[in-house]
Specification:
single chain, about 260 residues, mainly alpha, 9 helices, about 0% strand, globular
């Protein structure tokens, strides 16, 4: 139960970081597209590093100890990653949602207000982050602290980017802040599911770790990187990615 509580608490910390990032938009601060792309690159770097150092490698270690075979452990990791990526791809296909630049995707969106299309798009993005935090705390609290810290750091610029984009779409600053804050609340939900799953059965731990990694890797490739390279700021976005990856690696090694 303590691991579950820690996981949910970590999810709320990440949600609070998302809300904190939106505060500048609430008080009238704006952000250039170049800065937004750099911050998104940073978010991708954090998520990429967390996927490998905090989820995949520990998942392989746990599976090897569980099954006594590195080959089986590698197979578990491969299947877990594929399942995680496939799950988010399925959500992306069936849930109607709208991206800021590429427009509507998914199912029939005619009956939904446009603001909820944005909310669903961001929710698809944030859920794997919360899931990763919960699974990491369920595996080891030090590892959970590392993942929570890294994801919370990247949630701050991400929250600002989302709020500014909503303001740019014509929403009031107050409404953009509230919507951004609400999208972060999916992270404690994902954290609860992840921490509960691996706490109920230790056999699910390697699967949960690699599943969460696959979900985040899909988001990085399908959502974040295309956005950062769309406006000609790929050099700054790449620099942000490298910095985010190094920072998360450092946090994982020193805290985990």
């Amino acid at each position: 139960m303590q691991d579950i509580l820690y996981g949910v608490g970590g999810g709320f910390v990440a949600a609070a970081a998302t809300a904190a990032g939106a505060i500048p938009a609430l008080i009238g601060r704006s952000m250039t597209q170049r800065t937004a792309d750099t911050m998104l690159g940073f978010a991708a770097g954090v998520m990429l590093s967390a996927s490998y150092f905090s989820l995949i490698l520990p998942g392989i270690d746990v599976a090897e100890a569980m099954f006594g075979s590195l080959w089986i452990a590698a197979m578990v990791a491969a299947v877990g990653i594929a399942l995680g990526a496939g799950f988010v791809a399925w959500l992306n296909a069936v849930l109607p949602h709208e991206h800021f630049l590429t427009g509507r995707e998914g199912g029939d969106a005619a009956a939904l207000a446009r603001i909820w299309l944005f909310v669903l798009a961001i929710t698809i993005h944030n859920f794997p982050e919360g899931l990763s935090i919960g699974v990491a705390f369920g595996a080891d609290r030090a590892n959970g602290l590392s993942v929570m810290t890294g994801i919370s750091l990247q949630d701050i610029p991400e929250g600002l980017a989302v709020a500014v984009a909503l303001v740019g779409q014509g929403y009031t600053r107050r409404r953009a802040f509230l919507v951004t804050m609400a999208t972060g609340l999916v992270e404690p939900v994902g954290a609860l599911l992840g921490a509960t799953a691996v706490s109920v059965s230790s056999a699910l731990l390697p699967w949960g770790l690699t599943f969460a990694a696959g979900a985040m890797l899909y988001i990085i490739s399908h959502e974040i990187l295309p956005e950062t390279h769309r406006n000609g700021h790929q050099n700054r976005a790449t620099a942000g990615l490298i910095f985010g990856l190094i920072l998360m690696m450092f946090l994982d090694v020193t805290l985990g």
